[in-house]
Amino acid sequence: MEITLKKIEHSPLLSEETNAFTAEVHFNGQFIARAKNSGTGGCTDIFHEQGHIDTLQKLEVHYRTLPPFNHPLASSTIPMSLDFHIEMLIEADFRKRQTLKLLARLDRDSLSKVVILNKAQYDNLVVASNISISIYSIKYPVRFDKMTKYQRKKIFALAQSNLKPGEFIYNKNLK
User: Fold this and answer.
1) How many domains does the structure of the chain reveal?
2) Which residues lie below 8 Å from residue 136, measured CB to CB, with a gap of 6+?
3) What global pTM score does this model have?
4) Torsion-angle region of residue 117: left (phi > 0), alpha (psi -120 to 50) or beta?
5) Tens digits of per-residue pLDDT, 124-147?
6) Which one of 72, 99, 126 terminates a domain?
7) Could you list the residue range(s) of the whole structural domain that residue 117 is in?
8) With contact defined as beta carbons under 8 Å apart, do 92 and 127 qualify?
9) 135 phi and psi, to 5 degrees?
Protein backbone atom coordinates (compact mmCIF):
# COMPACT_ATOMS: atom_id res chain seq x y z
CA MET A 1 0.00 0.00 0.00
CA GLU A 2 1.80 3.06 -1.21
CA ILE A 3 0.35 6.52 -0.97
CA THR A 4 2.17 9.29 -2.78
CA LEU A 5 1.39 12.95 -3.18
CA LYS A 6 1.79 14.82 -6.44
CA LYS A 7 1.30 18.42 -7.54
CA ILE A 8 1.93 19.60 -3.98
CA GLU A 9 1.48 23.33 -3.48
CA HIS A 10 2.54 24.73 -0.12
CA SER A 11 1.18 28.05 1.10
CA PRO A 12 3.51 29.14 3.93
CA LEU A 13 1.91 32.59 4.16
CA LEU A 14 -1.48 31.02 4.90
CA SER A 15 -0.08 28.50 7.40
CA GLU A 16 -0.97 29.50 10.94
CA GLU A 17 -1.29 26.35 13.07
CA THR A 18 -0.92 23.67 10.41
CA ASN A 19 0.59 23.53 6.92
CA ALA A 20 -1.65 25.11 4.29
CA PHE A 21 -1.46 23.04 1.11
CA THR A 22 -3.20 21.34 -1.79
CA ALA A 23 -2.10 18.03 -3.29
CA GLU A 24 -3.19 15.09 -5.40
CA VAL A 25 -3.34 11.75 -3.55
CA HIS A 26 -2.20 8.70 -5.51
CA PHE A 27 -2.59 5.12 -4.34
CA ASN A 28 -0.42 2.49 -6.04
CA GLY A 29 0.19 4.99 -8.84
CA GLN A 30 -3.49 5.84 -9.42
CA PHE A 31 -4.96 9.30 -8.76
CA ILE A 32 -7.73 8.76 -6.20
CA ALA A 33 -8.28 12.06 -4.37
CA ARG A 34 -7.39 15.67 -3.71
CA ALA A 35 -6.26 16.80 -0.28
CA LYS A 36 -6.16 20.31 1.12
CA ASN A 37 -5.66 22.07 4.40
CA SER A 38 -6.38 25.76 4.97
CA GLY A 39 -3.62 26.04 7.59
CA THR A 40 -5.84 27.33 10.40
CA GLY A 41 -5.59 24.26 12.63
CA GLY A 42 -8.41 22.19 11.21
CA CYS A 43 -8.26 18.73 9.71
CA THR A 44 -7.02 17.96 6.24
CA ASP A 45 -9.92 17.62 3.81
CA ILE A 46 -9.79 14.71 1.36
CA PHE A 47 -12.06 14.79 -1.70
CA HIS A 48 -12.32 11.49 -3.59
CA GLU A 49 -12.18 11.30 -7.34
CA GLN A 50 -15.15 9.66 -9.05
CA GLY A 51 -15.17 5.91 -8.48
CA HIS A 52 -12.62 5.92 -5.64
CA ILE A 53 -14.73 6.41 -2.51
CA ASP A 54 -14.39 2.70 -1.61
CA THR A 55 -10.60 2.90 -1.95
CA LEU A 56 -10.46 5.91 0.37
CA GLN A 57 -12.69 4.20 2.94
CA LYS A 58 -10.49 1.07 2.88
CA LEU A 59 -7.36 3.19 3.29
CA GLU A 60 -8.89 5.06 6.24
CA VAL A 61 -9.76 1.73 7.94
CA HIS A 62 -6.22 0.49 7.29
CA TYR A 63 -4.56 3.59 8.74
CA ARG A 64 -6.76 3.51 11.84
CA THR A 65 -5.41 0.00 12.60
CA LEU A 66 -1.81 1.24 12.64
CA PRO A 67 -0.13 2.06 15.96
CA PRO A 68 -0.33 5.67 17.15
CA PHE A 69 2.43 8.12 16.31
CA ASN A 70 4.80 9.14 19.10
CA HIS A 71 5.59 12.76 18.32
CA PRO A 72 8.78 13.96 20.05
CA LEU A 73 7.17 17.28 21.02
CA ALA A 74 3.80 15.92 22.17
CA SER A 75 3.23 14.52 25.64
CA SER A 76 0.83 11.89 24.30
CA THR A 77 0.56 9.77 21.18
CA ILE A 78 -1.38 10.84 18.10
CA PRO A 79 -3.82 8.32 16.61
CA MET A 80 -2.96 7.36 13.05
CA SER A 81 -5.39 8.16 10.24
CA LEU A 82 -5.27 8.73 6.51
CA ASP A 83 -5.39 12.51 6.82
CA PHE A 84 -2.65 12.48 9.48
CA HIS A 85 -0.48 10.31 7.21
CA ILE A 86 -1.00 12.83 4.39
CA GLU A 87 -0.05 15.67 6.76
CA MET A 88 3.18 13.84 7.64
CA LEU A 89 4.00 13.42 3.92
CA ILE A 90 3.33 17.14 3.38
CA GLU A 91 5.60 18.07 6.30
CA ALA A 92 8.40 15.87 4.95
CA ASP A 93 8.05 17.42 1.48
CA PHE A 94 8.07 20.94 2.91
CA ARG A 95 11.22 20.25 4.96
CA LYS A 96 12.94 18.71 1.94
CA ARG A 97 12.15 21.76 -0.20
CA GLN A 98 13.37 24.15 2.53
CA THR A 99 16.59 22.15 2.91
CA LEU A 100 17.25 22.18 -0.84
CA LYS A 101 16.58 25.93 -0.93
CA LEU A 102 19.05 26.53 1.90
CA LEU A 103 21.72 24.34 0.31
CA ALA A 104 21.31 26.22 -2.99
CA ARG A 105 21.78 29.50 -1.10
CA LEU A 106 24.92 28.16 0.59
CA ASP A 107 26.30 26.99 -2.75
CA ARG A 108 25.59 30.43 -4.26
CA ASP A 109 27.18 32.25 -1.30
CA SER A 110 30.26 30.05 -1.43
CA LEU A 111 31.05 31.34 -4.92
CA SER A 112 31.93 34.76 -3.51
CA LYS A 113 32.54 34.17 0.22
CA VAL A 114 33.87 31.63 2.63
CA VAL A 115 30.89 29.93 4.32
CA ILE A 116 31.49 28.61 7.84
CA LEU A 117 28.83 26.38 9.43
CA ASN A 118 28.25 24.71 12.78
CA LYS A 119 28.84 20.96 12.22
CA ALA A 120 26.20 19.66 14.66
CA GLN A 121 23.47 21.90 13.25
CA TYR A 122 24.43 21.13 9.67
CA ASP A 123 24.21 17.39 10.36
CA ASN A 124 20.69 17.88 11.74
CA LEU A 125 19.66 20.21 8.95
CA VAL A 126 15.89 20.13 8.63
CA VAL A 127 14.60 23.57 7.71
CA ALA A 128 16.29 26.84 6.95
CA SER A 129 15.36 28.49 10.25
CA ASN A 130 17.00 25.73 12.32
CA ILE A 131 20.58 26.30 11.22
CA SER A 132 23.03 28.86 12.48
CA ILE A 133 24.98 30.24 9.56
CA SER A 134 28.00 32.38 10.08
CA ILE A 135 29.62 33.61 6.91
CA TYR A 136 33.18 34.70 7.21
CA SER A 137 33.09 37.52 4.67
CA ILE A 138 36.29 37.41 2.76
CA LYS A 139 35.71 38.46 -0.80
CA TYR A 140 37.71 36.58 -3.33
CA PRO A 141 40.38 38.83 -4.91
CA VAL A 142 39.39 37.71 -8.42
CA ARG A 143 36.75 35.50 -9.93
CA PHE A 144 37.10 32.03 -8.45
CA ASP A 145 37.80 30.35 -11.79
CA LYS A 146 40.69 32.82 -12.34
CA MET A 147 42.26 32.19 -8.91
CA THR A 148 45.61 30.54 -8.64
CA LYS A 149 46.14 27.49 -6.46
CA TYR A 150 48.20 29.68 -4.11
CA GLN A 151 45.34 32.20 -3.71
CA ARG A 152 42.88 29.40 -2.90
CA LYS A 153 45.24 27.95 -0.29
CA LYS A 154 45.76 31.35 1.28
CA ILE A 155 42.01 32.05 1.54
CA PHE A 156 41.40 28.56 2.94
CA ALA A 157 44.14 29.00 5.55
CA LEU A 158 42.79 32.41 6.58
CA ALA A 159 39.26 31.00 6.96
CA GLN A 160 40.55 27.97 8.86
CA SER A 161 42.30 30.21 11.37
CA ASN A 162 38.92 31.80 12.19
CA LEU A 163 37.10 28.52 12.85
CA LYS A 164 35.58 28.02 16.30
CA PRO A 165 35.23 24.55 17.84
CA GLY A 166 32.53 22.56 16.04
CA GLU A 167 32.62 24.67 12.87
CA PHE A 168 33.75 23.72 9.35
CA ILE A 169 34.23 25.37 5.99
CA TYR A 170 31.32 24.52 3.71
CA ASN A 171 32.91 25.72 0.44
CA LYS A 172 33.56 22.84 -1.91
CA ASN A 173 35.55 25.13 -4.20
CA LEU A 174 38.36 25.83 -1.69
CA LYS A 175 39.32 22.29 -0.73
Assistant:
1) 2
2) 113, 114, 115, 116, 159, 162
3) 0.77
4) beta
5) 665 445 555 666 666 666 667 777
6) 99
7) 112-169
8) no
9) -110, 115
